[in-house]
Write a sequence for this structure.
């Protein structure tokens, strides 16, 4: 191996100067990182409930949507949850920290959107729905609710409270606990995830993955019965 | 030191690596048409080349320790593509170290080939972060979140971006090391070949 002495003798720069230069660069970068780290992070401070809050599940959990099934499923032969009653979920609202209960409202169909702050498809779906509903509001006999789940403190787009506020998401939205209790109760299999129930609280369809606005309108029709 | 500071430190190291790669690439490619850049390329081979393998071992060690910090300290769970990149990166410490000790062009070639493979995975991972539909059809997998941006600094430096920067720098160092290992007289003979493609003889 060529030594620094060899380098000097051959007219090149001493080998150790490269290492010193590299060390200086690393130290300068470290100092810059220490000085500026507070300015580079997320500006949103998490609320107390953003790491998860206790969830109460009343009723039988829905089975997961099979792994090989994607998109909208309305067929009970494919999705065993179709025709069953959706469990009632109670806990804390992801937006406000206030108590919230996601229970069937008599006479109203319901669309439950399950989302996660880190999921890029959820990040696309939420503003799409907000924008669509601004132009085409839900009919009186259908309501939209949310479930913020699979919480990952510190990861991308955290916390959920700031994300939903930024997107002007106004639907009541339960925040899950750290064990994804609510997500498991609705048979979560992918994100975003939709559970559509009719006016009796019976599951009429589930869907995993992003939807087009036309696809969302179809969910509204299904919820109306 | 908190996680935010450490990950910003890694991101800035990645930016430094990107700058170094651009400089080396500019000298390598521009040297074909520009005598000044050709001289700069020869100077790189002469002055950096003899240390390139050892520097590569250090870079690979930093990348390895960085990835272990992200998973074991920052609790960011590696996805499938992250594991492929780890498999390509971790052996580089040994590969570059051995190449430095033996001044071996063959080991340099092996290192160049494997970091290229790792860099290809990183490139796909970066694309997947920006275009999640490349892999999943509009849906996030609950347990394998390759398309998820776990952290991001400076508006573009994500974990796969850091890995890609590391692989690119290692490729430059492998090629520089090979060029220097194949041109033992380059320091004293300015007419000695400095382009790695011109050198085929394995030094003893």
């Amino acid at each position: 191996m060529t030594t620094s002495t060899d380098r000097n003798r051959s007219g090149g720069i001493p080998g150790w100067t490269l290492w010193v230069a590299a060390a200086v660069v690393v130290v300068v970068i470290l100092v810059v990182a220490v000085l500026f780290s507070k300015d580079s992070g997320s500006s949103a401070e998490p609320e107390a409930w953003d790491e998860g809050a206790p969830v109460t599940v009343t009723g039988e959990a829905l089975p997961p949507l099979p792994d090989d099934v994607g998109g909208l499923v309305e067929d009970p032969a494919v999705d065993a949850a179709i025709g069953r009653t959706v469990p009632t979920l109670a806990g804390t609202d992801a937006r406000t920290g206030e108590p919230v209960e996601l229970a069937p409202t008599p006479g109203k169909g319901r669309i439950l959107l399950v989302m996660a702050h880190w999921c890029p498809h959820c990040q696309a779906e939420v503003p799409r729905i907000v924008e669509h509903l601004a132009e085409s509001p839900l009919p009186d006999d259908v309501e939209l609710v949310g479930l913020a789940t699979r919480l990952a403190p510190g990861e991308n787009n955290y916390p959920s409270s700031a994300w939903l506020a930024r997107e002007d998401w106004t639907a009541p939205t339960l925040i899950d606990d750290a064990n994804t209790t609510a997500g498991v109760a609705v048979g979560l299999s992918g994100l975003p995830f939709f559970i559509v129930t009719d006016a009796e609280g019976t599951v009429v369809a589930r869907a995993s993955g992003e939807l087009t606005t036309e696809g969302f309108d179809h969910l509204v029709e299904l919820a109306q019965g | 030191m908190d996680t935010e500071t450490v990950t910003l430190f890694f991101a800035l190291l990645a930016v430094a690596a990107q700058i170094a790669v651009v400089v080396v690439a500019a000298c390598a490619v521009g040297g074909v048409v520009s005598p000044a850049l050709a001289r700069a390329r020869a100077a790189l081979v002469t002055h950096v080349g003899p240390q390139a393998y050892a520097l590569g071992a250090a870079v690979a060690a930093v990348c390895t320790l960085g990835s272990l910090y992200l998973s074991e300290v920052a609790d960011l769970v590696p996805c499938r593509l992250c594991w492929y990149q780890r498999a390509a990166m971790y052996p580089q410490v040994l590969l570059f170290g051995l190449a430095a000790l033996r001044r071996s062009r063959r080991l340099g070639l092996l290192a160049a080939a494997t970091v290229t493979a790792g860099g290809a995975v990183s490139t796909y991972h970066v694309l997947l972060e920006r275009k999640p539909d490349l892999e999943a059809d509009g849906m996030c997998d609950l347990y394998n979140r390759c398309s998820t941006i776990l952290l991001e600094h400076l508006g573009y430096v994500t974990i796969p971006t850091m890995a890609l920067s590391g692989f690119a720098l290692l490729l430059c160092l492998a090629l520089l090391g090979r060029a220097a290992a194949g041109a033992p007289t380059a320091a004293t003979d300015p007419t000695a070949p400095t382009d790695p493609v011109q050198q085929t003889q394995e030094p003893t």
User: Anything to note?
Assistant: The domain at 56-224 of chain A is CATH 3.40.30.10 (Glutaredoxin). Strands of chain A lie at 56-58, 71-73, 88-93, 99-102, 109-115, 142-148, 173-175, 193-197, 203-208. DSSP finds six helices and nine strands in chain A.
